[in-house]
Automatic annotation (TrEMBL):
Residues 1-24 form the signal peptide. One of its GO terms (molecular function) is iron ion binding. Pfam families: Cytochrome_CBB3. This is Cytochrome c5 family protein. InterPro entries: Cyt_c-like_dom (IPR009056), Cyt_c-like_dom_sf (IPR036909), Cyt_CIE (IPR002323). Residues 26-106 form the Cytochrome c domain. Keywords: Electron transport, Heme, Iron, Metal-binding, Signal, Transport.
Length: 146
């Protein structure tokens, strides 16, 4: 009579493993991987004050900006943070996963962005780019006056 017990124990164990996997936040896997390959070069050591994952104090004001705004502004580039994380081939979706992982590792509870969140991020990024283009056009106008 030992076999069924063993099998049901095995079954319960498999189920226990499968449930968290099915619910896993993809930012924990995809986002972390992108962070490691593309973002860590600067962020792991805080190069030029890049906020380090795990530094809750540095991340608190960033997390307060909200996922859509922070992700969009970082994507377009902000101060010493290069646009697209300095990786022109990186998609916005992958970038957003990396930001979600970094924020989650630093006191935020950000999930991998779903379709609705990606829509908001795209909208914010487009607006931010529009502002940048206007500023650059104004600069160009100044040159034309010379
Ligand atoms: C070449 C170095 C470098 C790389 C590579 C880099 N970052 Fe950054 N990042 C920075 C620096 C520096 C800052 C701080 C900017 C500042 O406040 O001046 C920053 C800031 C940020 C911020 C906060 C933006 C804000 O509004 O203050 C986010 C989010 C971010 N990075 C995400 C990423 C992600 C995601 C990647 C990888 C896909 C990445 N970074 C790759 C240097 C880098």
């Amino acid at each position: 009579m030992k076999k069924p017990v063993l099998l049901s124990t095995l079954g319960a164990w498999l189920l226990a493993c499968a449930v968290p996997l099915a619910n896993a936040n993809t930012a924990d896997t995809v986002g972390k991987k992108i962070y490691e390959t593309t973002c860590a070069a600067c962020h792991v050591n805080g190069v030029a004050s890049a906020p380090k994952p795990g530094d809750a104090k540095a991340w608190a004001p960033l997390i307060a900006e909200g996922q859509a705004i922070l992700t969009a502004h970082a994507w377009v580039g902000v101060r010493a943070m290069p646009a697209q994380g300095g990786a022109p081939d990186l998609t916005l979706d992958d970038f957003a996963q990396a930001v979600a992982w970094m924020a989650s590792a630093s006191g935020g509870n950000w999930k991998a962005p779903d379709a609705a969140m990606m829509h908001r991020i795209r909208h914010e990024a487009a607006e931010r780019l529009e502002q940048d283009i206007k500023a650059k056009k104004a600069m160009k106008k100044m040159l034309e006056r010379d």
